[in-house]
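Good morning C.,

I know you're traveling, so I'll keep this short. The sequence:
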Amino acid sequence: MTGYAPLNTLKPLAEGIWIVDGPAVTSFGFPFSTRGTVVQLENGDLWVHSPTVLSGDLKAELDAIGPVRHVVAPNCIHFVHTAEWLATYPQATFWTAPGVHERAAKSDMVLPESEALQWDTSETPWAGQLHQLIVRGSKWFHEAVFFHPPSRTLILTDLIESFDTAKLPTRCRPFVWLNGIDNTDGKMPPVLRWSYKDKSALAEDVETMMSWGPRRIVISHGDWYQSNGTAELERAFRKILRGRAWERAMEDMKTQESSRR
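The tokens, ready to paste straight into the viewer:
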């Protein structure tokens, strides 16, 4: 049950970028909807972010538009289907955020060797085509985010979750409401937010994403944002950004006091 049918098919957002809504995955009895993103690079190669189930029909659609050359596991939670994609597309390069292989090993999964995503620089194959940043501030959760300038699409994974409770079993709705991740005010789930001890680093990276001027924000779980992307970032991270603004105000006050002496 996801409510985002049709599943396992390319859904165009703009020229050269698609989303794929996949079947739900279950964690602790909760059905998480899944969503991947596909970008066609300037040379025709396909870049696949947080891949969902690779069905035969989806493979046919992909093969019709270009070769899959890059498979991205953007954080230590989103790697479940990467092995099947890499087995199907052995010429693809596997790119991973910090902690992916370690987390997979805890689940008794051995993933293929990969290239490590850089923290603040786009990889050579998509330099100048996708902005790239690994969000700082957490000791264990490191999500790589990407921005597609031509379509002004920001590609996130778990930094924002926004579930439509009408699309969930009734028994699951209190969980979403209590965690504050329903689509009336989607945001980072508390279990991840609590891991961010360095709030200033997180706020700085959110401000960088806002500076990119996103129109759309694609997320992996729940309703994604088709417009007003910058405003949605400001809303979802308002408490973190408010703290950052306070720090700046205090720094300005100290600077002004020093200049008077």
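Safe travels,
E.
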